[in-house]
Amino acid sequence: MKVEIYSDIACPWCYLGKRRFEQALERFEGRDGVEVVYRPYQLVPDAPEQARPHREWLAERYGPQSVAMDARIADLGRAEGIAYDFDAAVEVNTLLAHRLLHLALTEYGPAVQGALKERLLRAHFSEGVDVGDRGALTELAAAVGVDRDRAAAYLAGDEGTAEVRAELAAGRELGISAVPTFVFEGRWAVQGGQEADTFLTVLRQVAAETGTDVPAATAAEACTDDACAV
């Protein structure tokens, strides 16, 4: 089974959804046969390349309610073992980070890409790292096994830019307008940072639909709240 996860490094719900999906995958009987690939999405495609404090940026976009928005996701994150630090976080254009994820996938495979995705999210949301800084990105890549010199040279040029932009366009053509969105076998999609139980139900339902020999859930269970068909 192939699961393509459309998400952005700047999306707190993407971090939460990733963690909950991984919890479901650990409980899924057919987990050894699941390939997880991360696809790019940009919440703010025209975000500047110069990082800005998260609190300031969010307040400009959403006003006074931004404080409550951060508080809610921080509470949810603690329950999943995620330490959001919105006071330290900075916002910046994420295209460079998506390019780096593309490099990790194409040259090192899904496992390394997944490790890099986790490292990027933690750096952005918990450590106040500027994920638009080439030097910082190079070190994050090296920490998960990507060759440091290769990562630095890759980020210094425009390699991978056209491919990532093409993937961003493909996501829009699929109708993906919010993240995280989890696409199963290119046919079924679940949107949002669902509970782990919901993801587990979907995994079992997709396995049943595709003939994988694992326990199945009902279609009604698989299509809850933000679940939808591509």
From TrEMBL:
Identification of the protein by name: DsbA family dithiol-disulfide isomerase
SUPFAM superfamilies xrefs: Thioredoxin-like (SSF52833)
UniProt keyword Isomerase, yes or no: yes
Alphabetized GO MF terms: isomerase activity
A Pfam entry, by short name: DSBA
Species this protein is from: Kitasatospora paracochleata
Keywords per UniProt: Isomerase
Domain of life: Bacteria
Kinase as UniProt keyword: no
Domain DSBA-like thioredoxin stretches: 3-202
